[in-house]
Amino acid sequence: MNAIRRQPQTMTLIADGTLTKVSGKCVITGEDHSVEVPTDGLKNWQGGMLMQNAMPNVHPDIREFLISGISPKGWEQIFGKGD
User: Fold this and answer.
1) Which helix H or strand E contains 42, and what residues bound it?
2) Residues 6-40: tens digit of each pLDDT
3) I want to staple 74 with a disulfide (CB 3.0 to 4.6 A). Which of 11, 18, 28, 34 is the partner?
4) What is the mean pLDDT of the chain?
5) Residue-wise over 4-30: b if at least 16 C-beta within 10 A, else e?
6) Quick one: which of 73, 68, 28 has its CA closest to 51?
7) What's the CA gap between 6 and 9, in Å, rounded?
8) Cα(2)–Cα(59) distance, rounded to whole angstroms?
9) Phi-psi map region of 64: left, alpha, beta (phi>0 left; psi -120 to 50 alpha)
10) What is the pTM of this model?
């Protein structure tokens, strides 16, 4: 099975260029969701680097939104609240 990379709807460079705000609609809830990630890490991931290597210090919920388009609220809607 091939991984599908969801492309965010908008990307905005923040302040001095070290962070990028990525915004899009959650594919589950349909609600707008935004995250801020290191610009270099985002470029590395878009260039083919594995997400966990490109952004090792970014919270997994944020990485998951970039990969699948599912926000934390969407995951909760699918699987319920964790322990």
Assistant:
1) helix 39-46
2) 555 666 767 677 888 888 899 999 999 999 999 99
3) 28
4) 85
5) eeeebeeeeeeeeeebbebebebebbe
6) 68
7) 9
8) 24
9) alpha
10) 0.79
Q: How far apart are CA 68 and CA 29, in angstroms?
A: 13
Gap between the Cα atoms of 6 and 66, Å rounded: 7
The answer to whether the CB of 23 falls within 8 A of the CB of 36 is no
Contact 51, 66 (CB under 8 A): yes
Asked if residues 22 and 8 have their Cβ atoms less than 8 Å apart, the reply is yes
